[in-house]
Amino acid sequence: MSELSLDGRVAIVTGAGGGLGRVYALELARAGAQVVVNDVGGSVDGAAAADSPAQAVVEEIEALGGKAIASTDTVATVEGGRSLVRTAVERFGRVDVLVNNAGILRDRSFAKLDWDDFGAVHDVHLRGAAHVTQPAFLQMKEQGYGRLVFVSSNAGTFGNFGQAAYGSAKAGIIGLSNVLAIEGGRDGILSNVVCPIARTRMTESIFAPGTAEPEHVAGLVVYLASEACAVTHQVFSAGAGRYSRVFTGLSEGWVSPDGAAASAEDVARHLEQICDTQRFTVPQSAADELAELSDLLEPAEA
Ligand SMILES: NC(=O)c1ccc[n+]([C@@H]2O[C@H](COP(=O)([O-])OP(=O)(O)OC[C@H]3O[C@@H](n4cnc5c(N)ncnc54)[C@H](O)[C@@H]3O)[C@@H](O)[C@H]2O)c1
């Protein structure tokens, strides 16, 4: 029995038929949650398959003595997202945890961009996360409780060659989580992001077996999904046994004399100070940044 119990909690994990999502679903179930195991099946690039692997993961959870149900809804449509959340509520009565993990890859350099691929990647990752989260968020607000776990990537936080569609969708997911952490806060909804690094079919050509496995990420996901979770509005990196916080800092910067508009030459002259990260803050909202400028900014007349 896990110390951080999810007994009585209901969790949805999208893309949970294999890879990281399967291990999240198994570990959430091991911690006591009833799990909706969602997956459309298909290859890494999102080409549809006849059979979804979700039912097999349900059977693995049942073999552990847990409760689970399979869903083959696609996250890539508004209706798929609604149907998935409806399945959870109809079967288990509530939605406490949503792990937005479903994903596909269609990498190519920006110079060779294919708009269908760009759209498909955004439909599954950024729009997909929103399609499922919107109905789940409404349910969580009604309950006065919820745990949202979004899945991003270092391609989104830091950039990666050949991943314009994927990286922009994954960065957008962080923006979505940040807003929901603010909008959901007063209703007991916490929202955080995980950037995993693990060997799955997506990355088997990059990592050797053993050192960076989905199990290295799952503990963080279960923590963020639990009632004990003490953070919101955060982004974490997890892989190969290293767990870190990723954050967006604002350097102290350079303030022009009397807040006057700087010329291009002024900017060039002060670039080092503008970019210097020795002193910085980590604003938790747009309002936090504006508060830092309160000596310089005057609000508009009401
Ligand atoms: N493996 C890594 O190192 C790594 C790094 C950064 C981010 N990620 C992210 O982690 C998540 C899981 O990836 P993974 O590595 O386990 O790969 P994976 O391909 O094994 O898992 C993705 C799952 O999502 C499912 N899926 C795809 N489209 C779907 C849709 N429309 N609706 C429902 N399910 C759908 C797939 O069938 C698949 O089972 C993805 O969001 C991925 O971008 C993985």
Describe, in short, the structure shown:
This protein has 302 residues and is of the alpha/beta class.
Can you walk through the features of this model?
The chain is built from ten helices and ten strands. Helices cover 40% and strands 16% of the residues. The N and C termini lie far apart (57 Å). By secondary structure, it is of the alpha/beta class. Helix 1 packs parallel to helix 2, helix 1 crosses helix 8 and helix 5 packs parallel to helix 7. The site of nicotinamide-adenine-dinucleotide has 32 residues, from helix 1 and strand 6. The site of nicotinamide-adenine-dinucleotide (NAD) has 32 residues, from helix 1 and strand 6.
Q: What are its keywords?
A:
302 residues, alpha/beta, Rossmann fold, eight-stranded mixed β-sheet, two-stranded antiparallel sheet, 10 helices, 40% helix, globular, binds nicotinamide-adenine-dinucleotide
Topology:
Blueprint: E1 10-13, H1 19-30, E2 34-38, H2 54-63, E3 68-71, H3 78-92, E4 97-100, H4 115-124, H5 126-143, E5 146-151, H6 154-157, H7 164-184, E6 189-197, H8 215-225, E7 234-239, E8 242-246, E9 250-251, H9 264-275, E10 280-281, H10 286-292
Parallel strand pairs: 1-2, 1-4, 2-3, 4-5, 5-6, 6-7
Antiparallel strand pairs: 7-8, 9-10
Helix pairs in contact: 1-2, 1-8, 3-5, 4-5, 4-7, 5-7
The protein binds nicotinamide-adenine-dinucleotide.
Residues 14-15, 17-21, 38-42, 44, 46, 74-76, 101-104, 124, 128, 151, 153, 196-198, 200-203 line the site of nicotinamide-adenine-dinucleotide (NAD).
